[in-house]
Amino acid sequence: MLEHSDLQAIRDIMKEEIGRSENLLRDNIRTEIGRSENLLRDDIKTEIGRSENLLRDNIKTEIGRSENLLRDDIKTEIGKSENLLRDDIKIEIGRSENLLRDNIKTEIGRSENLLRDFIKTEIGRSENLVLNEVDRVQENLETKMEQLQKNMDELTQYYRAVKLDHENNALFLQMIQELKKEMEQLKMKIA
In angstroms, rounded to a whole number, what is the distance separating the alpha carbons of residues 191 and 182? Predict the structure, then answer.
């Protein structure tokens, strides 16, 4: 594929060749003119003019043809290069995607294993803490339950004592009531 610098180099070579060719023609013409200047001045001028026009036309035609060929070649080469680059890019992207996919799978697996181990360790540690706390709470609860049982026993004893006291008071009141009745009956008998 020709690059801009290659085209410029071709143009420069063509300019040099044209310049060299023109210089050679000028030298030959000067020699011929010098040799036959007086005899052929008008003919030479006519021929030189015709030759210059022909050369100018030929050079323009050749340059145009060369530029068209170069343009076509450049387009063809650019198209080929673009297709090759497109194919290479697709292949490289596919390869890169596969490598990334594999790396991601590997990293995810490694990360999952690390997390699994960490979670197991943390769960074990947490379970031990919870079990220790449950044991401590259970011991506290057992101590408090024993204290509650003692308090309940005391309350039961107090309740029994109060109940007995109430029963005694009730019996005592009943006895007083009966004594009152008996005293009223005695008063009635006496009176």
Answer: 14
CA atoms within 13 A on the CB side of 125: 6
Residues constituting the chain: 191
CB 1 within 8 A of CB 80: yes
Q: Do 4 and 45 contact (CB within 8 A), yes or no? A: no
Residue 72, phi then psi, degrees to nearest 5: -60, -45
Over residues 76-130, the pLDDT tens digits come to 888 898 899 898 889 999 998 999 999 999 999 999 999 999 999 999 999 999 9
CB neighbour class for 70 (10 Å; exposed up to 12, middle 13-18, buried from 19):
middle
Tokens of 165: 């006291």
Whether 44 contacts 33, CB under 8 Å: yes
Token code pair at residue 184: 């009223």
Residue with tokens 């769960």: 123
